[in-house]
């Protein structure tokens, strides 16, 4: 049975990484389902061989942290893209309560089992997040009811487990009457459970005394205290490749620039394209001989903040080389926290740093960035190339690239603040993964092999508040980017101050 399940997961090799439900299930199969089979009563005849084979590869398998992280990733996708849990369990990525087309339609629909849904709900339950535990455990209970009596040895949970956790979740959420009915249903299947029997008595007394708190709508936890969450999620939900409120190519005629990908958000009215005369597409040489024979294909996305997209900035072969160089060195990404750096839930990705001496491709890419931006990238005026991989639900909540405090680790380079960012898309994704500029109210979908450029600082050296941006969670696919952060020292004559001190 287990072999058939694993074989079914690998029917479409290309889809195994793209579909987050499939990725979660693969991790769960390898971390918990397989050991359950190995140590089950049915395996006793082949115990020694099974255990030996499992021990050989145990260190290579996903751990508990991987599985819990995958469960949190599904909850993140549920939240940011407003997905229906019932839909996700049925392999459909549909917004809850909406008649819109699915945000992502996998080539092969993959369903989550009752045990899968229970595990996601349990991860939320264990952290006191009853908002998520209720939705996922409800689905687990519903699926367990349908298959009651046909228990699988690879499952860790059962209908009784799901009812028990769901009842307590409702109790903690203030819905005593529903907690009572679920506990009574539990006792129907397991009448001898004294703990649940005591809970039933407790819930009945609370309801009789009228001291039970009336159940209000459950609020979603905001663990990172993100103030701009609504705007961030609204921008992430914009379907890729569609133009926003401006209704056109933002001053970029289709016959000149067919790939205008800017998505405008709903928060503020946007000027019509004819009122944005500076937005255009052009071939740029930037006054350097390096670009004479092959000019850069520049699309102006926004004037304030200044954001430009350079199409076909890197070749497929170069992108694969950079991914291959970075792969063995990937580590969980960290963020600045005061004077230190640490892991954080609001940035889920893996990253590695590449020096320009790592490979001729990296060196050529650095020269190209210098030519296009006109900035000095020699050490210590720029950081090494950072290669980032955003896998299952990978994201980076709204943040600034430039330091907002003099105590930031960025100043250890002794070359000032980050004046500019170049972000190169090394891969395509099937859905999600846009770069959303929160205060400026627009987002840019992933455009494979293109480079996104923006100024982090104004000409007077102050940080530009309009560059608050986020990496939306990857809904389907495997997102790779390469970041080049350029510092202000060394650029004094390349981007001089303006005569207006406010500029």
Automatic annotation (TrEMBL):
PROSITE patterns linked:
FE2OG_OXY
Keywords of the record, alphabetical order, are: Dioxygenase, Endoplasmic reticulum, Glycoprotein, Iron, Metal-binding, Oxidoreductase, Signal, TPR repeat, Vitamin C
Query: Which SUPFAM superfamilies does UniProt cross-reference here?
Result: TPR-like (SSF48452)
**Gene Ontology molecular function, alphabetical:** iron ion binding; L-ascorbic acid binding; procollagen-proline 4-dioxygenase activity
Q: Which cofactor does it need?
A: L-ascorbate; Fe(2+)
**What reaction is this protein's catalytic activity?**
L-prolyl-[collagen] + 2-oxoglutarate + O2 = trans-4-hydroxy-L-prolyl-[collagen] + succinate + CO2
Q: What is its main location?
A: endoplasmic reticulum
Q: Where in or outside the cell is it found?
A: Endoplasmic reticulum lumen
Please report the stretch or stretches of sequence annotated as the Fe2OG dioxygenase domain.
381-488
List its EC numbers: 1.14.11.2
- State the family named in the UniProt similarity comment for this chain: Belongs to the P4HA family.
- What is the protein name stated in its UniProt record? Prolyl 4-hydroxylase subunit alpha-3
Q: What biological function has been recorded for the protein in this entry?
A: Catalyzes the post-translational formation of 4-hydroxyproline in -Xaa-Pro-Gly- sequences in collagens and other proteins.
Organism for this UniProt entry: Corythaixoides concolor (Grey go-away-bird)
InterPro entries listed in its UniProt record: Oxoglu/Fe-dep_dioxygenase_dom, P4H_N, P4HA-like, Pro_4_hyd_alph, Pro_4_hyd_alph_FE2OG_OXY, TPR-like_helical_dom_sf, TPR_P4H
